[in-house]
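Lab manual, section 2.4: Encoding a predicted structure.

Procedure: take the sequence of the chain (183 residues), apply the prediction step described in section 2.3, and record the output as structure tokens. A sample record is shown.
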Amino acid sequence: MASNALSPFIKHIPDRPYCTDDLGSGLQIRPKATALQRVYLQPNGPCMVWALVYDVDRRVVDPERLAPVWEDVGMPDPNFATINRASGRGHLVYMLTAGVCKTSAARLEPLRYAAAVQSAMCAALDADPGYAGLVTKNPLHGRWQTWEIHGQGFTLGELADYLDLSAANSRQYRVPDGERPYV
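Recorded output:
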């Protein structure tokens, strides 16, 4: 049975997510029950984002100070961290209380806001900016050490309170003068 920290994550996994036991052999689409047994799985469906996942390419917990990376940079605790037992690297997962729609019916401003929050969090956590987020380490799989922290979701506004969005907005998400946005 899933803990309070993992229940929202499991609830929002797609019914037929991408998953695999070996990233080198490619991804398969499988029923949710099968995917939950794989090493890696897709956290968000194609239409909604519920989980913000950050790939931390250094130890999630500083072994000298025993401080997690999010405390070092003043970010809130993620819902859980899925950590490679050998290297200490891992994925930090922040669950949203309200999903962000990504379909053609989505409004542009919420998508821009979500992108700005996600980009600023990635920079603040010094996470891998090249991580696509299609699949994540499965927190239920025994290969990983899963640190379950709390079950409370976040709004984008709550996460933004910890961030400076002005740099992200001015750099990436503003249409340059004289150009028309693709809408």
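Check your result against the sample. Residues 7-171 form one domain.
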